[in-house]
Amino acid sequence: LGYRPTQTWLLRWAAYYYTHGLQLKPEDYNSRFSLGVTYQELNEFERAARQYCRALALAPLRAMPRYNLGL
Question: Using CA atoms, how far apart are residues 51 and 36, in angstroms rounded to an integer?
């Protein structure tokens, strides 16, 4: 019963810290991809797609951003 609000709070917290970490190191593929996954879990699909595209720009041969984008 109380699971989803707690999960949402934790995901928002994670997105906040990934975003701030990326301000310090914007070329970090893992943080960029993880932020995309976090947004996807929050049903913020446009934001997730933006992060997946940025992750692909950093590491074009990685499969997971393509998979999550449906490419």
Answer: 5
Quick: pLDDT tens for 18-67. Answer: 999 999 999 999 999 999 999 999 999 999 999 999 999 999 999 999 99
Q: What is the pTM of this model?
A: 0.89
Distance in angstroms (rounded) separating the CA atoms of residues 67 and 5: 28
Cα distances (angstroms) measured from residue 46 to each of 24, 42, 49, 50, 53: 23, 11, 5, 6, 11
Q: What are phi and psi of 70, to 5 degrees?
A: 80, 25
Cβ 39 vs Cβ 45: under 8 Å: yes
